[in-house]
Amino acid sequence: MKLTIILLMIVLTQVSAKVFSQKISLNEKNAPLYKVLESIRKQSGFLVLYQDQVMEKASPVTINKKNISLQEALNDCFSNQSLTYQILEQTILVKSKPDLAIKRAQERSNFLIVVKGKIIDESGKPLPGAGIKVKGTTVSTVSNQNGEFSLKNIAEDAVLVVSFIGYSNKEVSAKENLGSIQLVPNSSNLNDVIVVGYGTQKRASVTGSIAQVKGSELAKAPVANITNSLVGRLPGLRAIQNSGEPGKDGSTIDIRGFGSALVIVDGVPSDFSQIDANEIESFSILKDASAAVYGVRAANGVILVTTKKGVMGKPRISYSTYYGLQNNATKYPELANAGVFAELSNEGAVNAWVKNNNPAVALSLPFSKDQVDQYKNGTLPSYDWFNSTIRKNAPQYYQNLNVDGGTEDVKYFFNIGYLNQDAIWKSNSTRFKRYNFRSNVSAKINKRLTAELNLSGRLGDLQTPGVSSGLIMATMKRESPVFPIYANDNTNYLASSNVQQNSLAQTDHQISGYGSERTKFFSGIARLTYDLPWIDGLNAKATYSYQNTDTENKNYIRKYNLYKYNSAANTYDIAYTANDPSNLNVRNAHKDDQAFQFSLNYAKTFGAKHNVSGLLLFERTETNTSFLSAYKEFLLDNLDELFAGVANNQSNDGSSAQIAREGYVGKFNYDYAGKYLIELGFRYDGTYKVAPGHRYGFFPNVSVGWRINEENFLKNNTTIDNLKLRASFGKVGDDGGDDADGANYIIPFRYIPGYNYPNDNYVFGTQLIPGLTTSGLTNPLLTWYTSYTSNVGLDVSLWKGKLGASVDVFYRKRAGLLATRVLSLPNTFGASLPQENLNGDNTRGFELELTHKNTVGKWQYSISPNLTFTRTKNGYLEQSPQTSSLGNYQGNMTDRWTNIIRGYEAIGQFQSQQEISTAPVQDAQANKTLLPGDIRYKDLNGDGVIDSRDQTVIGRGTTPELFFGLNLNVNYKGFDLTVLLQGASNFNRYYSEELQSPFFNGANTLAMFTDRWHRQDLYDPNSPWIAGKYPSTMISGSTNNQLYSTFWLQDATYLRIKNVDFGYTFSKGLIEKIGMRTARIYISGQNVFTFSKVKFIDPEQPSGRGNFYPQQKLWSLGLNVGF
């Protein structure tokens, strides 16, 4: 029913007898009652409330009186009416006079009872936390952990509304013993509450492109870093994991290919990668204009993480643990053994001698034929550096304990977690430990005031070898199998390899040094919410948050010796001294973040069909950072502290920064009968980086929705549950964030002249003096760049949620991206050019998500595939001007796709020397250096020469344009199975150096190069050639075969079984006998199997040499119990 509020003045601060003593003068003839009441309101200051349909029953009023009391004026106005009035504080409430039937109903309602019952699900299991509300009132409660509830002082004729997320609401008539109330699953989940910008909404009323996953689903994946459990679950979310190294195995996440998203945890900006999965209630992503309300850091989308809260009921204790074993998820390149290495080395020497075609130089072979035979038959040993350094399995284990519960006034959630993750090195020198805690408490201070206090903390302790894992992987790949790991196989003396390194020594912190990183994080969020008494539905909310991050890094590189055995003297001589001198690098970083928010929030339903909500918010954030580093070298290795180092070559550095932002947010939501939906929003934001006059910007957004299924022509359709059309548009500013390494980072304060100090050094006499230079030209016009985002979407649900689909098409245009103007300046100019807002780009794509769920007998299943396609194209791109049409074709990237690779088009391999002699010249020496099996390239311009003018677009870039995933869930009685598939396509990988050329820079070779072009008799240059997959082996390499071409370009499309989880939940009848609430045992696998054309390296690893710690497959056995 529509409620009209006549409100021209906020209620006075006090109610006193003076108000009632105010005099009222009225002179009206046959005037409508509402007009007379308006006059009374103006003279008295009282608020007048009435319903339109009630006022329609009023009779005209005739009155002519002066200086009468308020009471007398009202009595005269209502003396001959079918209406009456009531004064509540400073409010005059107009209502109908109750008739006899109503009076009797009121009399009956005076009989109050205590209502008790139990809420159960479709299988008869209790539903703790279900809501029970007396219809038409604010009286409510929730069921306890056994599904039971009790309500006192309830009228006999009251109606109760029972609700639970994921289930349809149910109405029941009140009585003292309701017994069990069974709820039916709501398959469409339209009543699910999802987290949106600065609040929550029912899924049915959402007009933006927002996706959400429950924390319970993420917790099923036994991952150390929560980012690795997100990939494949949500459309629009792209995640790439480059490494499996403990403590550094997080995925790079973006939304729709836009770039790094802003992360909000419980309403404040924060990092979430190391949050314990059991702390998370839900994970949402805002992908379109709905992110605009978060301001200048939200141009690339927003990730919203909501942690768990307490529930009403007795304390519930939950304990989770698992123990798992890690090993390489994909096959690492197989290296040649000693026999293959020796044979290919000789073959490469012969081919190099033939290629050089210099008879004056005698052929010199690295190995004699006898040695080759002895290595091949095992007489001489072959050393496996890879398996000597890496173990087959590395343990990972996890424990978590949390408690939740509460009363109607106080609710709490407490959580502690522990993770231990080992590495694959046999030396056991890498280990990551993490400790988490969280305390979320909310208290109802009185009927209007609620307080919340969320405290959380993490301690991360990472221990590693002194050198990086990338360097270790590179060393293992390069070490020759004919070089021993230990000198004379004596384990007391590590040997020097062909690359003057020893990977076993590199991984051992007791030999080569160590790295230590300790990260301490604390977060506190305090929030007060006050329901304002004078306007129903309006509340004020104040939030203060403080976060502190301290990172301590200590990297000690220890000098050590590698040996060789002198058989004649029976001695172990030093062959090489590594890491000389020993050195220590200490780096400490400190960061404080503070945020304050104040908001007014309003939500009200008028006349049952007009749903209105709004938000006004002020936000201010401040960040203080400091950094300090010091470096020293050592003569002695037994004391690894800075004071023990020598003064030579010592150095130190430090910095600090203060950052502040503020913004104003407004949101307005309206829907009519859940059918027509609109959301308007704005953000007025400020940044500290640019000149006054350009610091603030106004960024609006709008989204609309039409739930077509609510129209009369579809409302009673038994097939269509939901059919919603959505559209949104928004403008967002971006100041490039605070990452100085970002591509569009705005350098602060470059609108004023400045200097760089120290910058460059100068020698005066014998002294080295640090120099000072200008920071460059200023640009007072520089401002943030702007993103314009549009989205159109369609949501469909059929047959009571059994089949669903959601599709979105999006487009983002960015203008004013940063660039430095390309100009030729004389060296005497003395200054660099400033940043300007010159460039632009646009990104477009689509998303599709399908869902199907059903119950067949005792089997329940659901399957949900999703797909995201996104591609970016340059707008204007500032670059050096091209001087020719060819240069413009190859080098001008304005209005070109960004995700492309240029190179040569390989058209096969030369089959004979005759074919080489008649082909276009591609070695600049009339093809005299080419051999059969060498790569042949296409002469695109037909000039008979293969050179840079023949380069063209040969493939996609290294970032996937197409991401896809599939979630499968099956339940049968107590058994459950979850499978997550994830993959990517439309991208390429290009592997180089050791992955492309045997013996690159004196390294070992890959075993796959045995499938190469070679002579039948490798020692006879005139012997016939035998074809193979790869070009012939060349000790010194072949420039021709190393050109960037399609021959080495890999289609990196892959499909990965990302997670498999199989468990059994014990029946309550069994476990309740031993005092347990729940019990589940499971086995889970992460990165189980990968289907890809790339066989020798993980397709998610970047292009290049492949020197990354490999992704890990993890099989774990776990237990979840509750009390």
Features:
10% helix; Ferric Hydroxamate Uptake Protein, Chain A, domain 1; mainly beta; disordered N terminus; five-stranded mixed sheet; 1123 residues; Immunoglobulin-like; Phage tail protein beta-alpha-beta fold
Describe the structure.
The chain is mainly β and 1123 residues long. Among the domains are: 3-97, Phage tail protein beta-alpha-beta fold (3-Layer(bab) Sandwich), CATH 3.55.50.30; 104-182, Carboxypeptidase-like, regulatory domain (Immunoglobulin-like, Sandwich), CATH 2.60.40; 210-312, Ferric Hydroxamate Uptake Protein, Chain A, domain 1 (Beta Complex), CATH 2.170.130; 324-391 and 967-1122, no CATH class; 906-950, no CATH class. It is built from 16 helices and 58 strands. The strands form 15 sheets. It has a 22-stranded antiparallel beta barrel. A 5-stranded mixed β-sheet has the order 16-21-22-19-20. A hairpin with a 2-residue loop joins strand 44 (835-856) and strand 45 (859-874).
Spell out the blueprint of helices and strands:
Elements: E1 3-6, H1 17-20, E2 23-31, H2 33-44, E3 47-51, H3 52-55, E4 61-69, H4 70-77, E5 83-88, E6 91-96, H5 100-109, E7 112-120, E8 131-134, E9 140-142, E10 148-155, E11 159-164, E12 167-173, E13 177-182, E14 193-196, E15 199-202, E16 210-214, H6 215-218, E17 237-240, E18 252-255, E19 262-265, E20 268-269, E21 280-286, E22 302-307, E23 313-328, H7 338-356, H8 369-377, H9 385-389, E24 394-406, E25 410-422, E26 431-444, E27 449-465, H10 469-478, H11 503-507, H12 509-512, E28 513-531, E29 538-557, E30 560-566, E31 571-578, E32 582-606, E33 610-634, E34 646-672, E35 676-686, E36 696-707, H13 712-715, E37 720-734, E38 755-756, E39 761-764, E40 767-770, E41 773-774, E42 785-798, E43 803-820, E44 835-856, E45 859-874, H14 885-891, E46 900-903, E47 906-909, H15 913-918, E48 935-937, E49 952-956, E50 962-972, E51 975-985, E52 988-990, E53 1014-1015, E54 1025-1026, E55 1049-1051, E56 1054-1065, H16 1068-1071, E57 1078-1092, E58 1112-1122
Parallel strand pairs: 3-6, 7-13, 19-22
Antiparallel strand pairs: 1-3, 2-4, 5-6, 7-10, 8-9, 8-11, 11-12, 14-15, 16-21, 17-18, 19-20, 21-22, 23-24, 23-58, 24-25, 25-26, 26-27, 27-28, 28-29, 29-32, 30-31, 32-33, 33-34, 34-35, 35-36, 36-37, 37-42, 38-41, 39-40, 42-43, 43-44, 44-45, 45-50, 46-49, 47-48, 50-51, 51-56, 52-55, 53-54, 56-57, ...
Helix pairs in contact: 7-8
